[in-house]
Amino acid sequence: RATSVCQTTCIINAVSFGCADMNARYGKHLLLATEACFCRTQLSSISNNQGPQNTNILIREAQLSANDGNRKTRASEVESLTKQYKNMERLCLSSPTARFTDREAVFVNKEVHLGEMDVYGFDYDLTLVTYTSALAEFIFRKTSHLLVWKWKYPRELLNIAFDPNFLIRGLHLDIKEGLIMKVDAFNNIQADTVHRGLQPVPVETVKSVYNGLYIASALLRGDRRTEKHHMTQVMDFFSLPAVYVVCSVIEHFKKSGINFQPECIYTDVRNAIQIIHQTGLLHEAIMRHPELYINPNPKLRSFLDRLCSHGKRLFLISNSGAEFINEGMKFAVGNDWRTLFDVIVVGANKPDFFRSKTTAFRAVDECGAFRSWEGVSKFEKGQFYLGGNLDLLRQFTKWSFQRVLFVGDHVYYDLADASNQWGWATAAVIPELETEIEISNTEVYRFNLRRLMLLEDLLLNNQLVVTAEGQAVLEDWRKERDHLRLLTKVCFNEHFGSIFRSFHNPSYFSQRLGQYASMYTSSVNNLLALPVDHTCYPRRTPLPHE
């Protein structure tokens, strides 16, 4: 706080010789300087020729002048901050309300000319057909039962209720540590989202585990070369109940004082999920009661019919089996649904379907049985084909891949390779988007967000406050900012917030969505509102330097 010895000497000399201008300018510095013992020694040596009495008078005058200046500085600084805050409050109340966002809109990341798209491709699960929350609870229950009866987990797990609102899509699960969290687009952990089991973890604990709040990309994605697959990301509907089982088991073990290794729990749950899928338990339940597990979609047939009427070629690529897809599409579209599709690929094993060149296509019937033991050399409209790969698809169809739009729900399995490796235009179906838009359109959320942004501008523009009183005002502002950030987070999800944001940064999920999806929307039906020759333009958003 004190000035250098040389500067202090100049100041004191100026004051001692009665320089009023220097006294007014440097009185505060003189007061600060005299607080230091070393500076007092300098003062004594300099003032020997002035006499102790005169020097003390001059110092006292300088102190009084400095105190008066400090009082004025404190008062004027606090007054300025108070005035700015009141202006902010007025702006917050008077700012024009932004137009509401249409929850059925199509949001564009990359420019796409639909008139140039001759071919439309679709995933099946969670794209053409979406599922009810009853199916998520079914998966949770069956997984818990398998843990208890097959691997002898505590029977008390059967009494745990499924909470469909606890988790959100896009979270990362640390397999080794047993921590679930949200990560932003820059690999930073959003500290207040980290949970072990169903309980939040203190920030200090998180920092000690990860040596800070940053996670290397290799750990987030999994590095196959080094086998450092410590993290898995919750990317689809089926993952949510499975991960909730992991969290519930960890929570029960913690409360019961049972020692455990998180990785073992994750492995057992993953194996249970595989059994549910491979034995057909899940698919059989859906086929028996489609009205219970499949969301009604009356617009889907109209959408597909319109594409066909405009000469568009349609194809379907799914990892699910022929019988399951056939029953689901008959329920959603009609018994003649296969007449709409030029190519139907089942058991595709995405994402390897986009990468491999060795797996051949096999013709199968609607029950999944082989129709012949000969290789496939061409496609017949409305027929099922098992396996295969994208290179063969291109050879058989002769489609220009620059004129393909593929619609799917899984950012990695459906969209990443199709977009990056093959140049397809891609559309992501994100059902959660509809609810998030409804929330962001509420007056409470819009008011809190507007106030938060204005308050952050105040903090940005007042970082050079020098007085303790001014710093106290800024600290109050920071506390209010934290409160507003919390309010805008919990309205989406109490524990993890929005799937698209990590406070002011995009979430890791949102960043990947922007990278691999040309556009995204809440339902495939929303594309029906766009003319077939419509051009999807992304909005120009300013860069930080613009």
From TrEMBL:
Pfam families: 5_nucleotid (PF05761). It comes from the Eukaryota. InterPro entries: HAD-like_sf, HAD-SF_hydro_IG_5-nucl, HAD_sf. The keyword Amino-acid biosynthesis does not apply. Keywords: Hydrolase, Magnesium, Metal-binding. Coiled coil: none annotated. Transmembrane segments: none annotated. GO terms for molecular function: 5'-nucleotidase activity; metal ion binding. PANTHER family: 5'-NUCLEOTIDASE DOMAIN-CONTAINING, FI20020P1. Belongs to the 5'(3')-deoxyribonucleotidase family. This is 5'-nucleotidase domain-containing protein 3. It comes from Schistocephalus solidus (Tapeworm).
